[in-house]
UniProtKB/TrEMBL annotation:
Listed GO CC annotations: plasma membrane
UniProt domain FMN-binding: residue ranges: 90-171
Higher taxonomy: Bacteria, Pseudomonadati, Pseudomonadota, Gammaproteobacteria, Alteromonadales
Cross-referenced InterPro entries: FMN-bd (IPR007329), Ion_transpt_RnfG/RsxG (IPR010209)
Source domain of life: Bacteria
GO molecular function terms listed in the Swiss-Prot or TrEMBL record: electron transfer activity; FMN binding
SMART domains: FMN_bind (SM00900)
Keywords, comma-separated and alphabetical: Electron transport, Flavoprotein, FMN, Phosphoprotein, Signal, Transport
Residues of the signal peptide: 1-21
Organism of derivation: Pseudoalteromonas xiamenensis
Example of a GO biological process term: electron transport chain
Pfam families: FMN_bind
Protein name (database record): FMN-binding protein
Length: 177
């Protein structure tokens, strides 16, 4: 019996991590769910250091990127809201999601576009995502108090919750000015 091949296989298995990724929606599909009768207009925004500081001050979470993927949503030529595409880290990998914010600054919905973690995909459950609908920047966003935590998805819940608050601050600082 030759133990070398068995040891190599065991070593390879021990060093490999399970990779899991799922794409659920495209940006266009998310836009249609968040604003069914609206037309999307690409409106990518550049964010200055001063604006990043304002966002952090309002949301308690820092804006990491200099640009944000934003779509102005219009119906009959009138602004009905914004779809903002964002990425937050779950435990190790990015979660890509879209947030709809209406013209008054209220969340219309959240859609998970891609989830790359092995655990925590329960954040895709509609009842959990619905907890954000109607929230504004002035509302409280404390996980386990205002927004329920999901066992097994704590980091995903926390980071998406923080991300939504940050995007509401971005809306106020960058899109309403």
């Amino acid at each position: 019996m030759r133990p070398l091949p068995s040891l190599i296989a065991l070593g390879a298995a021990a060093t490999c991590q399970m990779v899991y990724a799922a794409d659920y929606l495209t940006v266009i599909e998310a836009q249609q769910l968040l604003f069914p009768s609206a037309v999307a207009i690409d409106h990518k925004v550049a964010i200055s250091d001063e604006q990043k500081d304002q966002i952090k001050s309002l949301a308690g979470v820092r804006q990491r990127f200099d640009e944000q993927e934003v779509y102005k949503m219009e119906k009959d030529g009138n602004l009905v809201g914004w779809t903002i595409i964002d990425n937050v880290v779950g435990k190790h990998e990015f979660i890509t999601y879209a947030v709809g914010i209406d013209a008054t600054g209220k969340v219309t919905g959240i859609e998970v576009l891609s989830y790359r973690e092995t655990h925590g995909a329960q954040i895709r459950m509609q009842p959990w995502r619905d907890m954000f609908v109607g929230k504004t920047l002035s509302d409280k966003f404390k996980l386990n108090k205002d927004i329920p935590n999901i066992s097994g998805a704590t980091l995903s819940c926390r980071n998406v919750t923080d991300g939504v608050k940050r995007l509401l601050a971005l809306h106020q600082v960058v899109l309403q000015s």
